[in-house]
């Protein structure tokens, strides 16, 4: 099973709470290519998920994130077998400006305009709550064989307000 991370940096875009923005990436290669997601990727051996989220965010968009708050644990199953376990973080603390890398085009996007139609199908179920400050544990079942991003999303279970 793959252990992976996602990190969602947040900032105030304007005066109103409604103007909050999240840093998303348009993924340029690999799993989920062409779709939007948070920066993130697979954990390396000996690395904690938190360290992974920090490293991947730096590598993909050049942003140094800190004070990561754990917001979710997502379990993705493919054809009944555990495929990926994803740790989700959010943070309002970061240094630097996002920049394009070989892996990602970064973009600050108003929280109300997140392009769910250009993301993984499961994102619409858990990301709005995570961006509102909730915590979530979810299991998402896909069918149809590898690669995961061509499999069909069939069903899920979600639990909110989980303590990590
Ligand atoms: C099934 N539903 C899903 N919904 C939302 N996000 C999903 C996801 N399934 C995987 N993810 C995330 O997608 C990234 C791929 O990881 P990533 O290491 O970038 O994959 P890629 O194949 O490009 O590998 P390398 O770049 O070679 O390491 C990683 O953050 C992972 O958490």
From TrEMBL:
Cofactor(s) listed: Mg(2+)
Pfam families given in the database record: NUDIX
Major enzyme class: hydrolase
Sequence ranges assigned to domain Nudix hydrolase in this UniProt record: 1-132
Gene Ontology terms for molecular function: 8-oxo-7,8-dihydroguanosine triphosphate pyrophosphatase activity; dATP diphosphatase activity; metal ion binding; RNA binding
Subcellular location: Cytoplasm
GO biological processes: DNA protection
Record-linked InterPro entries: 8ODP, Nudix_hydrolase, NUDIX_hydrolase-like_dom_sf, NUDIX_hydrolase_CS, NUDIX_hydrolase_dom
Keyword annotations: Cytoplasm, Hydrolase, Magnesium, Metal-binding, RNA-binding
Catalyzed reactions: 8-oxo-dGTP + H2O = 8-oxo-dGMP + diphosphate + H(+); N(6)-methyl-dATP + H2O = N(6)-methyl-dAMP + diphosphate + H(+); 8-oxo-dATP + H2O = 8-oxo-dAMP + diphosphate + H(+); 2-oxo-ATP + H2O = 2-oxo-AMP + diphosphate + H(+)
Main location group: cytoplasm
GO cellular component annotations of the record: cytoplasm
EC numbers on record: 3.6.1.56
Described purpose of this protein according to its UniProt entry: Oxidized purine nucleoside triphosphate hydrolase which is a prominent sanitizer of the oxidized nucleotide pool. Catalyzes the hydrolysis of 2-oxo-dATP (2-hydroxy-dATP) into 2-oxo-dAMP. Also has a significant hydrolase activity toward 2-oxo-ATP, 8-oxo-dGTP and 8-oxo-dATP. Through the hydrolysis of oxidized purine nucleoside triphosphates, prevents their incorporation into DNA and the subsequent transversions A:T to C:G and G:C to T:A. Also catalyzes the hydrolysis of methylated purine nucleoside triphosphate preventing their integration into DNA.
Subunit structure: Monomer.
Protein family membership: Belongs to the Nudix hydrolase family.
Name of the molecule in the record: Oxidized purine nucleoside triphosphate hydrolase
């Amino acid at each position: 099973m793959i252990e992976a991370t996602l990190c969602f940096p947040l900032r105030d875009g304007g005066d109103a709470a409604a103007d909050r923005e999240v840093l998303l990436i348009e993924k340029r290669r690999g799993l989920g290519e062409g779709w939007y997601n948070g920066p993130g990727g697979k954990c390396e051996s000996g690395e904690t998920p938190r360290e992974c989220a920090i490293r991947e965010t730096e590598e993909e968009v050049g942003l140094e994130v800190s004070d990561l708050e754990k917001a979710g644990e997502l379990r993705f199953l493919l054809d009944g077998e555990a495929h990926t376990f994803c740790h989700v973080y959010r943070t309002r603390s970061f240094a630097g400006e996002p920049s394009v890398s070989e892996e990602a085009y970064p973009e600050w996007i108003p929280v109300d305009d997140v392009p769910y139609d250009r993301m993984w199908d499961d994102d619409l179920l858990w990301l709005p709550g995570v961006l509102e400050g909730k915590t979530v544990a979810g299991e998402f079942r896909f069918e149809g064989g590898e690669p995961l991003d061509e499999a069909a999303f069939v069903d899920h279970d979600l639990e909110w307000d989980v303590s990590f």
